[in-house]
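We now fix the convention by which a protein and its fold are recorded. Think of the row as the fold of the chain written in a discrete alphabet. Here is one such record, which you should read through line by line.
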Amino acid sequence: MSTDIDIYANKSAVITRNNRNDGFTDNVTAASSTSKRISIRNNVFRYMVNGKEITKTDNRHLDVVIVNASPVHRVFFSQGYNPNVKAEPPKCWTSNSINPDPTVPNPQASSCASCPQNIKGSGQNGTKACRFSRRIAVVLADDLEGDVFQITLPSQSIFGNGNDTRRPLGEYADHLKAFGSGLMSVVSRMSFDPDSSSTKVGFRAIAELTDEQYEICQRQHATEASTRAITLTVASEREDGDSPDEFAPRSTPQNVQASPLPKFEPEAKPVVTEAPAQATVEDEVPEPQVRAAQPTKKVPEPPKNVDLDDVSLDDLVNDWTT
């Protein structure tokens, strides 16, 4: 038996075998907590565990159910963004876009409204130096009872206007409310905007959840993982798509013809979690599955002493603030 390489080094998906929970591995970890998120850096969906990329997909869309969302956050960096230079921690941040967070050592102003970093032209290319972002907690559409992932959306994925194919989060939520629905009631297809020069995703509702599936998502909403996913931990916004685009207020949702969404029918048989299901055709919809109760499968976690250049900004700043 060869011992020259890590047997998981070339795995690009979750292992498809019977779950083997030995009862003690969960207690042996190099990290104080496990951070699971999906990065959208460079217009690629990347699955991250504790800041380490586990796998990624070449598909241009990802089907999820949004189970929680944060208020609009803002973060200010004193240095301009340079992808070739390791970023310093931010100088100021806010989780409510009204006042600096109480933990900020040296606030830039007493309120966001009076802050000099909130003036157009204070940032690069005539933008505001203080950047908008928003965090959402999602579960994969084909694994509703699986892991809750954090996704950080930059400003151009939150504000503005879209179309029937792809809407920024704010307009998308208004669009769903216009038809008596909500973010946690539907499967949302996230896709990248091919016409944007920076990282930008939009959302489209492709199916409506059954009552049983909605109840599963309600339980996911109430979990600690869901709350942790939307809590501001200063600064993954830089990695996930710092854009020169300026904040643009969204307009009233366009009047569009309502069309009924197909109902998902869960299968009775248990299934094994595989890699995030991806359709090969843009409009092919994978069917969400309800898994039989079983111990949660754990993705192998990276060692803590990795090179800091490979660690996400989220994890670097988490270490800085503790």
Notes: Residues 133 and 154 are 5 Å apart (CA to CA). DSSP finds five helices and ten strands in the chain. Helices lie at 169-178, 211-221, 224-229, 237-241, 313-321.
